Amino acid sequence: MINFGIKDVIDIFIIAVMLFYIYKMMKSSGTLSLFYGVLIFFVLWVLASEIFDMRLTGSILDKFMGIGLIVLVVIFQDQIKRFLIDIGSHGRMKYFRKLFKHDGEPEARRKDIMAVVYSCMSMSKTKTGALIVFQRKVPLTTYEATGDLIDADINVRLIENIFFKNSPLHDGAMIIADNKIKSVGCILPVSHDMDIPKELGLRHRAALGMSQATDAVCVVVSEETGNISVAIEGKFKIKLSAPDLEHLLSEALSDSSI
Q1: Where are the alpha helices (H) located in 5-155, listed in sequence order?
Q2: 219-251 residue pLDDT tens
Q3: Residue 182 CB neighbour total at 10 angstroms
C-alpha cells in the first residue's frame, strides 16, 4: 500500500514551483528548448533508476547526471544568479529594503529618468542611434568592464554627446546604475532569436539579449527610423512616445535604485 501524506503534497508543490520558476527563467533567456531537453533527460533518468530499476542504464545516466549538473551550473550561472536575486527580492525582503530607502530617492529617480527621456526624444529627432541600459536587481559589473568606466552624473547633454555620431563611444551601450552613468561603449550579449523583426538592427538584438541574460531595462533609439524601443524581460515594446517611455521606466525602476 502506498502511503501518501501531507509531506508528499508539500514535496510535489516545491518541485512544481521550482520547475515553474526555471521555465520562466529559460523562456525569458531564449533557452526554452534546452530546458525541455534537460527535463526529458531527467525523466528518463528517474524512470531507469527508480521506476524500472534498470541497473546498467541507470548507472550510466547517474554518471551523466553527476557531470551534467556541474556543466549546467557553468552554462547557466547568470540565470542562476538572477533566479536567486529574484527570490531575495520578493515578499518580506522587498518591504525590508524599503525601510532603508531615503525619502529623496523617488524624486532623484524621476529626475534621472526624465534626463534619459529628453535625450532619447532629442536623438530620435536627429536619428542618432543609442542604447541605454538600466541596472535593476542583477549587477551588471561584468558588462561595465567591457566599456570605459566614467561614473558620471546623469544629464541630457552628456548622454547626447556620448551617442553623437562622431563620438568614438557611440556604437557601444551606456550602463546606468546607482544613479550614475557607470560605463559607456559597453559590449552586450546579442540575442539570436529568429522571430525578431528584420527591420530591427544590431542594437535591438543586443538590447533583447541583455534583457534575456539579466533583468535590465534596455532603451534603444533606432539610427534608421528614429523610433524608440524598450527591451525588458525578453520582450520588446516599440515605437514609444515620450509619455510612454517615462511611464514604462518609472514602473520598471520603481523597486530599484538606478
Answers
A1: 6-29, 32-46, 55-75, 77-89, 92-98, 105-125, 141-144
A2: 999 999 999 999 998 888 989 999 999 999 999
A3: 22
pTM of the full predicted structure? 0.65
The three-class DSSP label of residue 90 is coil
**What are the residues facing 228 on neighbouring strands?**
221
Q: CA distances (Å), 255 to each of 106, 164, 251, in order?
A: 10, 31, 8
Task: Determine which helix (DSSP H) or strand (DSSP E) holds 160, and give its type and residue range.
Answer: helix 156-162
Q: Are 99 and 143 in contact (CB under 8 A)?
A: no
222: left (phi over 0), alpha (psi -120 to 50) or beta: beta
CB atoms within 10 A of CB 198: 5
Crossing angle, helix 105-125 and helix 242-252, to 10 degrees?
140
Instruction: Of 221, 238, 239, give the one whose Cα is nearest residue 128.
Output: 221
Q: Could you tell me if 30 and 234 are in contact, meaning their C-beta atoms sit under 8 angstroms apart?
A: yes
β-strands 173-177, 130-134 pairing: parallel
Helices (H) and strands (E) in the chain, counts: 10, 7
Apex CA 141: angle with CA 73 and CA 195, to 5°?
65
Residue 73: phi and psi, rounded to 5, are: -65, -40
Q: What is the CA radius of gyration of the chain?
A: 22
